Amino acid sequence: MKQLIGILTILFLFSCASTKLNYPAAKDFNNTDSDHRAIEIANETMQAMGGYQNWKNTRFISWNFFGSRTLQWDKKRGLVRIESKKDKYKVIVNINDGTGKVMLDDKIQTHPDTLTKYLDKAKSIWINDSYWLVMPFKLKDSGVTLKYVGSGKTTEGADAHILSLTFKTVGVTPENKYHVYIDKNLKLVTQWDFYTKATDEKARFTTPWIGYKKYGNILLSGNRGEGYDLTDIQVSQVIPHDIFGGF
Questions:
Q1: Which of the residues 78, 109, 195, 230 has an alpha carbon 20 to 30 A from that of 224?
Q2: CA 20, CA 23: separation in Å to the nearest integer?
Q3: Which residues of the chain have pLDDT under 70?
Q4: Sequence-ordered list of residues with C-beta below 8 angstroms from that of 61, at least 6 positions apart, any chain
Q5: What pLDDT does residue 171 have?
């Protein structure tokens, strides 16, 4: 009886560990064509980044994208505020339904064509800029096919698993492809290669993913190499006032 209890205990613990490492894929993730090994590594990366539950519960994320604009994102409500001092615009957009507000040169805009133009632009900016920050949490997103390319080394010579991400009918550039390098020891993304088209053999660019820090209950990296820094990163569960209500 003691031996049976011991076996059951081990199986229970193993089950808990497996559940912990296996987070639910987003709707329409291409599970059929994705590799089991790639999915397994994606699960490990999610856990190393803080875990699915902590990512799910993270409410507000803000950052500065390459010094050109600031973004504030309410993950729960799907609201994003973008400000560019250089281009003199402020936009608040609901990324779920496309509604929002636009200010150009300190003037609130009401013309439908102007609103459509800048709200669409804001959503595209959010898709791009957030991917540069939180991509490791999106390895099993809708429309993604995840493949295991094999073992390799980063440009810094570190051993890594290489995963291929391709896309179907999602985002603004679904023809893109990424090779993501995941450190074999840290389980964290430490580099990515960007391909303009999935059929391209040569990457358009390669940047590191380094300088991880803990923000709230998750890890984020803002260092993408010289000239490509994501700065002023903040993660919180509350904000002092409703920054998504107006300008």
A1: 78
A2: 7
A3: 1-21, 171-172
A4: 72, 73, 75, 130, 133, 134, 215, 233, 234, 235
A5: 66
Identify the H or E element spanning 71: strand 69-74
Structural domains in the chain plus CATH codes: 26-236 (2.50.20)
DSSP 216: T
3-state DSSP assignment of residue 93: strand
Alpha carbon 60 to its chain centroid, in Å, reads 14
- Percent of the chain exceeding pLDDT 70 equals 90
The identity of residue 240, as a single letter, is P
Q: For the chain, where are the alpha helices, taking DSSP H only?
A: 2-21, 36-48, 52-57, 112-134
Give the DSSP per-residue string, 99-168. -EEEEETTEE---HHHHHHHHHHHHHHHHHHHHHHHGGGGTT-TTEEEEEEEEEE-TT--EEEEEEEEES
